[in-house]
Design a protein that fits this description.
The protein has seven helices and 14 strands. By secondary structure, the chain is α/β, with parallel strands linked by helices. Strands 1-2-3-4-5-6-7 form a seven-stranded mixed β-sheet, covered by helices on one side. A five-stranded mixed β-sheet has the order 8-9-10-11-12, with no helix packed on it. A two-stranded antiparallel sheet has the order 13-14. This is Glyoxylase-like metal-dependent hydrolase (Beta-lactamase superfamily II). GO terms for molecular function: hydrolase activity. Keywords: Hydrolase.
Length: 284
């Protein structure tokens, strides 16, 4: 994305307008992208973090038109908190990704989660929200988070892929909520679709989505192979694998890299290929 102006609506196609939130970081790239769908009445996908300037930019673009739904791909703090203020301003329901059940919240939540995310309605895989000239259909894509959902716009062949597929970076999968097995299955699910273009939560639109998804599957399988080769030399803790796997990584991203390797190990363990003992992982 050569230019990433925040607060300026960019019409991507007749039914889709993008607004960039002012929250750039090593994990969010240039910031979170919110999408307004429709012309007469609207849906808003991922209104982003709590940010008064971003809220005002969205309301200015909405310009008093009815908002039928505020759709959430997942409840990370850079995607869902802005829904509450937008719902209060527009009266629209918050719809999409499921909340955590109370028993699960303590075990799964961390600082990146919007702990008070509470949708008015959860969209199951294949369910839709309909407006004037547009339809948004839920495509369950767990992996990045257990409740991640993408939204398909069949009128144009677009898919709003959230953080499941992004053109600028591979997706972070952090246990215990992130699950590598689910993530890989969700990528395979997208390979079976014929979406024309992806509009992700961060970064440029993906104009050759199946090619990118194929590459992401290959990348993750390559990481699996790396891990198995490294463990062939003997048991190692997760931290000891990182220097060989991420030689030139930005130090700020090391926690994400550690989580990703752990996610791979847990998936390999579930498949009976590795095991853990005394904090170290070994091949079986």
């Amino acid at each position: 994305m050569a230019e990433a102006p925040t607060g300026i609506p960019i019409r991507l196609e007749p039914l889709v307008t993008r607004l960039l939130a002012p929250n750039p970081s090593p994990y969010t790239h240039t910031g979170t992208q919110s999408y307004l769908i429709g012309t007469e009445d609207l849906a808003v996908i991922d209104p982003g973090p709590e940010s008064d300037p971003h809220q005002q930019a969205m309301l200015a673009e909405i310009a008093g038109r009815p908002v039928k739904a505020i759709l959430i791909t997942h409840h990370h703090r850079d995607h869902s908190p802005g829904a509450r203020a937008l719902a209060a301003a527009t009266g629209a329901p918050i719809i999409g990704a499921a909340p955590f059940a109370p028993a699960e919240a303590a075990a799964r939540a961390d600082a990146s989660f919007d702990a008070i995310y509470a949708p008015d309605r959860v969209l199951a895989d294949g369910e839709s929200v309909v407006g004037t000239g547009w339809t948004l259909t839920a495509v369950a894509t767990p992996g990045h988070t257990s409740n991640h959902v993408a939204f398909a716009l069949p009128e144009t062949g677009a898919l709003f892929s959230g953080d499941h597929v992004m053109g600028w970076s591979t997706t972070v999968v952090l246990p215990p909520d992130g699950d590598m097995g689910q993530y890989m299955a969700s990528l395979e699910k997208l390979m079976g679709r014929d979406d024309r273009i992806y509009y992700p939560g961060h970064g440029d639109a993906v104009e050759q989505p199946r090619r990118l998804v194929r590459g992401m599957l290959g990348h993750r399988k390559h990481r699996e192979g790396q891990i198995l080769r490294l463990l062939a030399g003997g048991a190692r803790p997760v931290e000891a694998l990182l220097p060989d796997m991420y030689a030139s990584l930005d130090p700020r991203l090391l926690p994400a890299a550690k989580g990703s390797v752990l996610a791979h190990l847990l998936d390999l363990g579930a498949r009976g290929l590795v095991g853990q003992e005394d904090g170290a992982w070994a091949r079986r």
